[in-house]
Amino acid sequence: MKLLILHGPNLNLLGLRQPDIYGIRRFEDYLPELKNAFPEVELEYFQSNHEGVLIDQLHQIGWEMQGILFNAGAYTHTSLALADAISAIPAPVLEIHISNVQAREPIRHHSMIASACVGSITGLGFDSYRLGIQYFIWNQGTR
Amino acid sequence: MKLLILHGPNLNLLGLRQPDIYGIRRFEDYLPELKNAFPEVELEYFQSNHEGVLIDQLHQIGWEMQGILFNAGAYTHTSLALADAISAIPAPVLEIHISNVQAREPIRHHSMIASACVGSITGLGFDSYRLGIQYFIWNQGTR
Amino acid sequence: MKLLILHGPNLNLLGLRQPDIYGIRRFEDYLPELKNAFPEVELEYFQSNHEGVLIDQLHQIGWEMQGILFNAGAYTHTSLALADAISAIPAPVLEIHISNVQAREPIRHHSMIASACVGSITGLGFDSYRLGIQYFIWNQGTR
Amino acid sequence: MKLLILHGPNLNLLGLRQPDIYGIRRFEDYLPELKNAFPEVELEYFQSNHEGVLIDQLHQIGWEMQGILFNAGAYTHTSLALADAISAIPAPVLEIHISNVQAREPIRHHSMIASACVGSITGLGFDSYRLGIQYFIWNQGTR
Amino acid sequence: MKLLILHGPNLNLLGLRQPDIYGIRRFEDYLPELKNAFPEVELEYFQSNHEGVLIDQLHQIGWEMQGILFNAGAYTHTSLALADAISAIPAPVLEIHISNVQAREPIRHHSMIASACVGSITGLGFDSYRLGIQYFIWNQGTR
Amino acid sequence: MKLLILHGPNLNLLGLRQPDIYGIRRFEDYLPELKNAFPEVELEYFQSNHEGVLIDQLHQIGWEMQGILFNAGAYTHTSLALADAISAIPAPVLEIHISNVQAREPIRHHSMIASACVGSITGLGFDSYRLGIQYFIWNQGTR
Amino acid sequence: MKLLILHGPNLNLLGLRQPDIYGIRRFEDYLPELKNAFPEVELEYFQSNHEGVLIDQLHQIGWEMQGILFNAGAYTHTSLALADAISAIPAPVLEIHISNVQAREPIRHHSMIASACVGSITGLGFDSYRLGIQYFIWNQGTR
Amino acid sequence: MKLLILHGPNLNLLGLRQPDIYGIRRFEDYLPELKNAFPEVELEYFQSNHEGVLIDQLHQIGWEMQGILFNAGAYTHTSLALADAISAIPAPVLEIHISNVQAREPIRHHSMIASACVGSITGLGFDSYRLGIQYFIWNQGTR
Amino acid sequence: MKLLILHGPNLNLLGLRQPDIYGIRRFEDYLPELKNAFPEVELEYFQSNHEGVLIDQLHQIGWEMQGILFNAGAYTHTSLALADAISAIPAPVLEIHISNVQAREPIRHHSMIASACVGSITGLGFDSYRLGIQYFIWNQGTR
Amino acid sequence: MKLLILHGPNLNLLGLRQPDIYGIRRFEDYLPELKNAFPEVELEYFQSNHEGVLIDQLHQIGWEMQGILFNAGAYTHTSLALADAISAIPAPVLEIHISNVQAREPIRHHSMIASACVGSITGLGFDSYRLGIQYFIWNQGTR
Amino acid sequence: MKLLILHGPNLNLLGLRQPDIYGIRRFEDYLPELKNAFPEVELEYFQSNHEGVLIDQLHQIGWEMQGILFNAGAYTHTSLALADAISAIPAPVLEIHISNVQAREPIRHHSMIASACVGSITGLGFDSYRLGIQYFIWNQGTR
Amino acid sequence: MKLLILHGPNLNLLGLRQPDIYGIRRFEDYLPELKNAFPEVELEYFQSNHEGVLIDQLHQIGWEMQGILFNAGAYTHTSLALADAISAIPAPVLEIHISNVQAREPIRHHSMIASACVGSITGLGFDSYRLGIQYFIWNQGTR
């Protein structure tokens, strides 16, 4: 099973950036642990701060992955183009957030990509990713 | 570990109600399967169509449970009193939705209880519950 | 033919409450007259000030009644949960109002339950009920 | 007793227009049936696609009719001038809709004429008219 | 000097309609008095309940009148087409209201035609017309 | 003189709940002190988390009490049905808040019940109740 | 007959200020002409840039003048206190504007004082004042 | 092939009206040129300032024309009744504007008829019509 | 104990102004009674119609008074500068209203100064002041 | 004559993406046909999913092309930077849409780039491009 | 060169008021330092809590100063009259704020005077003034 | 001291683009002059039309620069991702605008990045940069 974790803007700075909101651990340190936890999954990881590069990436792997865990960062709230890209590809996309975005500023309460995704896991720290992978494993072959 | 699944209005009709949105399986049939999957958890279940009864229940078990999985149904979008009840108790509450509420009518895009919860799992069918229990197990003792 | 008249909050005070808006006659005094006018109908009546009890009631008789005349009072304008309950059951529900709600304060201009109902009769005093029953009789067996 | 059924824009195309919303029966075919059902009523019928003609008509028969059943079509939602015309005349006007306008696009959820009418019957197909006539008969002489 | 008093919908019923707002005098009775007061003015009068007829009229006399006193009634608040017609013609148009529209319902607080007019006289009863004629006399030849 | 203190949702947890907002004292401990301060008043106390039970209670004692001090908690901001219940009964109702609701989240800035009450005392801690009782004593017999 | 022309902020600069909007004539030069035109009127004039001074002035002459022509300048759109002052006094107040405020920026489209005034004359340059005085003369003794 | 150019309010004044926006050429002068350019098309032309007449016209030729080029003028932004008329007929309707309406006042940014049309051509002067006819020719027989 | 009653615009006209809202008693007549009721309080009184004078006054006595009862009249709803002045001084300020502002026009439903005050007493006539003084006495020395 | 077709995000997937909205033909297959139809035009084509690359492209060819047909995809509704880029260059830009965006979700009803473009052609499938080229040919040399 | 620093409401309390926002230094202590830094400038200083006095001051020195540094405090967000005063005078006005108003409450995000000023310097503490003076020196003689 | 001037979309066209708004001087011509004025500063310059490249750049130099002068162009008003990037880095960022954005279209009145910056300098042409550098020099070592 092939899954992609796709990260949007500023998520390359996890562990360095606003640690009261995002914690002090770098995602690069967490990734190996995540791979160990799911040896049956071929887990890829891609991050970009560029809306266009994220769209390109969705197009490129959208016919190949069995699932995508997408934390679009701030683009969650401003990018209709990413929503269109998600609707354009067959791979199911799961919206992921580390922090509880609904408990932050009003502009973060609305997701422009949510209606194009299968669902979302929000506010559970790095566990949001782990649970998302678990979801794709349980549903392997059902789509 | 003691966890509660708390169900709000109309969720007693799962399996009977709008099957195109909620599926055709009754929650009562799913619950034993869920209990089997997590033998280490003492899993309780409570449903009410009454906002007040749900508040009473949160008050009553809020000092006793290690976690609450709360699908508040339509009250998610209209009840400030439930949000206050969640804020009032020490047990962590996880917001759960079977359907992808952000892809439905606008009134379902905003959650009044989200900011009082630790996070949310939305749109993943009955798996939303299973992932939520998994989350509480992984985080047992960390709060 | 079995029909239910379902009354929401404060409608137990008809005749006592704001007579300039709702008139001075008690609904209990009108009900026998209504039953006499339609001897072929088994007409039940239920009132509650509790949103949850109204939902319970809809669930309980939703597979049994041929039609429901629902004056939800103030819940008309605030309860998404009642709208969901109406959508969940097979019985057709007709929205009823004694006063012309669209001619009152702005908050009463929008009905949250209207889109789940078959239609509405508004502002015609107690005749709103009588016409509603007539409607169900004319359409008996067509749904 | 003299009553008028007044029809606004596009209602001359009933039976031809969007049959999934308005049904396949022409109003001209229904009218004789309606007249037969109420032999005691002198029932007139008038349709126009012109806002101004509808106002003229209200002015002309507003002192002569005992009641008016007014389906203003799309003008329901945009015409303050029709609301003023209704307020200007002594005849009671009942707002009528064939479809459940509150379950359609948001612009159809608000009626500009409602506050000038005695009440409304909405969503009950051609029965909306029949019930409305019944209402005027029951209340003959009470205004 | 040629001036036109142009009246929109329902203003043919002045004196008959909502006398608490518009008074009990018919405009037809007031017009001769107005003509007597300004013998130097060739004063024409035109009323229609039809938005289209009002536009036609503005087009027809727009190159011929030295001024137009326009009480557009309810169309004041809903007709962009009338605003366009006023902008299209060279004759200066003065917006007139008998009642103080800003002290009535919110929908009457905004005028769609105001920005196309030279100014407005509001709330001064039939004197609004008399003052408007006075204005055009004082400014004769200055445009 | 008979007065009722009526408490809405979550107010049973005063002293336990969010002490930075509501303080650390339980209302049950304060009540005897309040009764001592006003020996001439027959002071009753009722709390419920159920909107419907609060409505029932208002109906039941609305013809019997000389005044009601109503802290409706979160229902203050969402319940039109409670506002209707207050309007339906003859007893004067005083809106009470312990915290300064206007200094909290925007949803707490608007009260749905305020216009049905005689007035409000807000933000003065438990003194809000004591002052409210004082008000009813001063005005005894004047209504 | 005693009338007051009351001028709000920045109107002392008429003739100097934004001449494309307000013209190049100073009001002080126009005032004698106005007095000459109405020898039967005792015409007073008062200007202040201070909201409070304008309120004081309304209070002071509100029981003495037969009419007030009030151009409140920018306070028209922001001062509820001036609206209250107008409502508090018996003298009728006429709202006056030199420019067509409805054709300028959106914030100038709404008048906070309009509903407290008897009416308004807008956009007719200095003639707005002359017409206003004429109005009060015509209606002398009718209030 | 039969096509209709349908013109709404004030478009009879093209060439005379606001030439900075609409140009100085009369549509009557352009029409023969247009007919010459497409000899294979039977091109009809109809203009009215009356909303109702435009609806009548759509009804009358809606089953006969292969296409309609509709410049609804100001009614574009205010007429739901015209949108309903377009939805009611089988002929495809193309929305046409001479000026770039999205670059003008905000009220002209939203089209009420757009969702009922097949598409729109905006801002290209009289070429908007010529391109529209071209479109219908290219698509002849495909609907 | 030194307390100030601070009055904003138009409150100098109490007893003369809109008696249906504010009553017929002048505040000057009530003040001695209030002083008699609280002989232990050095009670000062200050009124101004000037926003700036009210700010000056708050600055001047803000380090000297033990409490301020502030009825800001219409400035309650429009003055951010008064809110800033209240935040700038150490004396606790209590918002006072004679009428039930939440039951009046929408613009009076929101207080701009509320979040800077300790709380508010609203709608209780002159008793609002008396209760406010009582509050400060009970809390003397606790701040 | 040199023209550019500029394509924004996700338009590289035409034919693959949501065929019910965009059809099943790839744009690459249509392009040669388009070039054949207009042999006199040097037609260039450029697509990017990157907002920044689209801006760069506009800057680079903005002084060189006689016209640009710009289908900005989802950026139409969110990119002020693209609107600024269009305003910055001398080449006329025509807004193009394949689908009828005004008949889709509300966020697609407003174009942020429209006011910077000369006009728009919307909803006519691939013919939108063909008509746009025709427009530029007809107007060659007129700008 | 003559420059004025103009201070609006509550800025007389700098150093005493909300030191976490505005710092602990009094402006009176900073002013000599500022004068020393720019010996070539004749620097005047004026503060008032009165909107009207600020307008008077702008009128009085508006033809005399080469530049005005205006920190309007809370009036920035509520005073259209001050914006009009700035537009009325020839002296260039620079908007100044000590704190970063855009990072505070929403009501402070919008400036009513900004569009009448040449520009603004915000959030840089007392340096905002020093930079503003520097700006006027660099641009001396260019206006 | 190391400072960066960071330029967003379309700012590479300064001098070429809309000269009535941005002037006719190219920034490249101004930069040497700026460097000469501050020989003690190591001044870097970077421009990109790509939101993602700007974020990358902020990440890359965010731990190295003592200050950043950021004119984000149109992204100022649409990019939450840039705001997040500014919050993520330790270097202080100063928002810069050449034109007075608050005096332009409404969409330019709100800055999404302002709350993440230390302050802003707006509308002062190229002097905005020079003053910003001055600010960083004055505050060197204080952060």
Entry keywords:
five-stranded parallel beta sheet, 33% helix, alpha/beta, Rossmann fold, homododecamer, globular, 18% strand, 143 residues, 5 helices
Characterise the protein shown here.
The structure is a homododecamer of 143-residue chains. Chain A is α/β, with parallel strands linked by helices and 143 residues long. Chain A has one domain (2-98, 117-138): Dehydroquinase, class II (Rossmann fold, 3-Layer(aba) Sandwich), CATH 3.40.50.9100. Chain A has helices at residues 19-22, 27-37, 51-61, 80-88, 127-138; strands at 2-7, 42-47, 67-71, 93-97, 119-122. A 5-stranded parallel sheet of chain A has the order 2-1-3-4-5, with helices on one face. In chain A, helix 3 (51-61) runs parallel beside helix 4 (80-88). The longest helix of chain A is centred in the C-terminal third of the chain and has 12 residues, at 127-138. Chain A is globular, with a radius of gyration of 14 Å.
